[in-house]
Amino acid sequence: MEWGRHDPMNHRRPQPQLGQPSASSTLGPVPEPGIAPVPGSAGGRPPAALEKEQNLLEGFRNVLAGEGRKATFTCAGRLPLVLHSGRDDTGDLTPRTDREVQEQRIVTECVRIRFGAESGGNILSLPMDGEPHEAEALDKLIQGCDQATFGRHGKDVLDETYRRAGAMGIGDFMTDFCPYKTGIIDIVTQLLLPSIVGDLTSGPQRSELAVQHDVTADQEHQIRYAVEYEICASNQSDMRSLRVSHLPSLLAILDVPLAGRAEFEEILQVFALQRTGSINFPDVFAVAAKRLHAKRLAGERTRGTQTLGPNELRRRMMFRGLRAELYKLNVYSGPHGLFKPHVDTPRSDMQIGSLVVCLPVPFEGGALAVRHQGQEVVHDWSAGMCADNKMVIQWAAFYSDCEHEVLKVTAGHRITLTYNLFLTPGTGLLAGKALSLQPSQLPLSQQMKVSCATPEFMPQGGYIGFMLTHGYPHTHKDLHHFVPNMLKGSDIVLYEAMHAVGLSSALEPIDSDSLPGHDALQHLERLHQANRRSWKNQHTEIGTHEANSRLAATEIEYEPDENSELCEEDVDMDSSEYEDVHEKTRNAPMKQRMRAREKIVWIGGGGQEELSKAYLAYGNQAELKVKYSKVALLVKVPSWAERGGSGAVASGTMGDPVSLE
Ligand SMILES: O=C(O)CCC(=O)C(=O)O
Ligand SMILES: [Fe+2]
User: Where does the record place the region Disordered (predicted)?
Assistant: First the structure.
């Protein structure tokens, strides 16, 4: 069977997957696990060439699956408790020697919880040593808890068949347990936010123009990049054909848009520009520099990735840290305590994970199962909590978009402290340790390099869409630029691998119909063209990912599935706030978006099923406008001719050009 433009039904048909019958739904199942034939690529090509291409694409799937299996999505640990340790003068239990730090040999003392009126009434000290007043304090703590609710369809619900637990908010208790002091946050940071090894580019020297206008090298990159992007977006051949009328969109790309007509007129006057005239590079530079300065003076926060220079973006990617915020104390009591499968509602668009610390109180059952991409890790803490062996604090952390559940507690009380983990700028001190990524060495980079060096691989060029396996939260259109450094597990491996190869790529929100934006490919093409131009023009070192993230709200539609007990929280969103790319996307004709989807060879798709079903919130903050987005990384594969054909260096890239040796 041939696929491609020669098939008159092609645009209406969902893309069949390798080895799978095509689905009958009108929207089609794409993207789903598996490889679709390269759209429009079959006509006239010898079967052997097609087979070679399919094998290379299949290679991506295998490598991705391997990365998925390797990638960490949850981690856990135990902290031995030392009672009456005899602190040193500083009262500090933090490891002091380098060896202790490396081995994370940390112990902790008993944990105290102060609760009751004004947090002053009662103290529970754990582990309990059998004194009657301790049992009394434990009883009081349990009595002082509210019944835990959770969010479902945007509302707080109390449903004991789904969640049976007591909850105490942070306003009602205090504890001296500290996840930083005990080293937990260090470990979780290393495991869930692997650092990326690579040099920050020093970038080219500032030009005279930049010095004259007092802009940094990063800002100079941004301006040059915006110009290239505008040239491509407006189908101009080069700078010489840019006119005054291009200024507004060029400034918008730079994230310093003109407020209105009056401002436009003012700029024309200040820079003595003719309304219908052409503009030259120094003019554009001067206007842009002035606006960037004004913005900085106004103390406005930078908005999109468009305005992040290559160094800034890499820095954010390379040095990631975590901040833990105590959220709740929960008590799951036998014989009925449980919390069925759910994902944690992100509390902000910077939330990346959740941490659960299990306090030393005996209980049975109550394992925490965490799932991602068909894999499951079960943290069973009951053994460590049995009556004669309770000298340990156990904890687990996981990406909060991963489905998890607390199995039934059959006896005793399972008392936990839960923390939300937010991304923060890290110090990068961990870089170079075993958990670091070396992007150019990643199997995915190698696979892409080999593919690009093969003439049979997408000879006319094309697009590959990798579905990310995790969901990404965000509240607001202005905040989506955090997404690249929010990437988790195997998603960051994929992103980094494509970055290392130097292909143009873009993070694209995928909506509840599994469709990308109608202009997703135009956007990617423009990036690619801009990248090529910049590369050719020696305006090097603007990474291919800098202007490319345009994630916005994606509502995840809940389709009840009788086999699933999962629920979805439908966080209320004021759609008027989302006048962005995605809004336009939503309103764009379905046909266009389907066409965009069909032009892409999809690889992977595992995460979305899980995400769309396992969508449930907990807690009492249903009003927060935070959602997980489904996201794809779209990659532009240049044609064989553009890749260098004869085996020379590919010209479709910049930064790290694909070297086809
Ligand atoms: O207690 C646990 O292990 C997990 C609790 C949980 O999933 C939650 O509070 O959302
Ligand atoms: Fe949870």
Answer: 1-48
Residue-wise pLDDT for 605-620, tens only, equals: 643 444 443 343 343 2
CA of 418 to the centre of ligand 1 (A): 7
CA of 379, nearest ligand number:
1
468 falls within a domain: yes
Q: What is the pLDDT, as a whole number, of residue 468?
A: 87
Specify if 2 maps to a domain: no
Rounded Cα distance between 285 and 298, Å, is 20
Most confident of 57-71, 127-141, 408-422, 628-642: 408-422
- Are 487 and 628 in the same domain? yes
What's the pLDDT tens digit per position in 490-519? 888 888 888 788 888 888 878 777 788 788
On whether residue 430 sits in a domain, the answer given is no
For residue 406, report the distance from its CA to the centre of ligand 1, in Å: 6
Q: For residue 646, what are its two tokens?
A: 């004869």
Assess contact for 632 and 467: CB atoms under 8 A.
yes
Q: Is the CB of 394 under 6 A from ligand 1?
A: no
Q: For 125-146, give the secondary structure using H, E and C.
A: EECCCCCHHHHHHHHHHHHHCE
Looking at the structure, tell me whether residues 421 and 354 fall in a common domain.
yes
Question: What mean pLDDT is predicted for residues 339-357?
Answer: 88
What's the CA-to-centroid distance between 404 and ligand 1, angstroms? 8
Q: What does the pLDDT read at residue 438?
A: 66
Residues 479 and 606 in one domain: yes
Same domain, 534 and 524: yes
Residues 293 and 334 in one domain: no
Nearest Cα neighbor of 68 from 494, 378, 369, 377 is 494
pLDDT of residue 30: 37
**364 Cα: distance to centroid of ligand 1 (angstroms):** 16
Per-residue pLDDT for 641 more than 70? yes
Looking at per-residue pLDDT, the higher value among 617 and 353 belongs to: 353
CA-CA distance, 429 to 431, in Å (whole number)? 6
Q: For the chain, how many structural domains are there in total?
A: 3
CATH number of the domain where residue 150 is located: 2.60.120
Residue 600, Ramachandran bin (φ over 0: left; ψ between -120 and 50: alpha; else beta): beta
**Ligand 1 proximity of 618 Cβ (cutoff 6 Å):** yes
**Residue at a domain's end among 275, 290, 317:** 317
User: Using a 6 Å cutoff on CB, does residue 356 contact ligand 1?
Assistant: yes
Distances (CA, A) of 136 to 29, 91, 198, 376, 417: 57, 29, 56, 38, 20
Q: What is the pLDDT of residues 39-76, one digit of tens each?
A: 666 667 888 989 989 899 988 888 888 877 778 889 88
Long-range contacts, 290-294 (Cβ 8 Å, 24+)? 290/213, 291/251, 291/254, 291/256, 292/215, 292/219, 292/222, 292/223, 292/254, 292/256, 293/214, 293/215, 294/256
Which pLDDT tens digit goes with each residue over 283-292? Answer: 888 989 888 8
Out of 397, 425, 453, a domain closes at: 425
Which pLDDT tens digit goes with each residue over 295-319? 777 665 544 444 455 556 666 666 7
Give the tokens for residue 154. 């945007």
Euclidean distance between CA atoms 659 and 631, whole angstroms: 28
Domain that holds residue 252: 208-317
Specify whether 181 is located in the same domain as 324: yes
Do 630 and 562 lie in one domain? The reply is yes
203 found inside a domain: no
Q: Is 327 found in the same domain as 310?
A: no
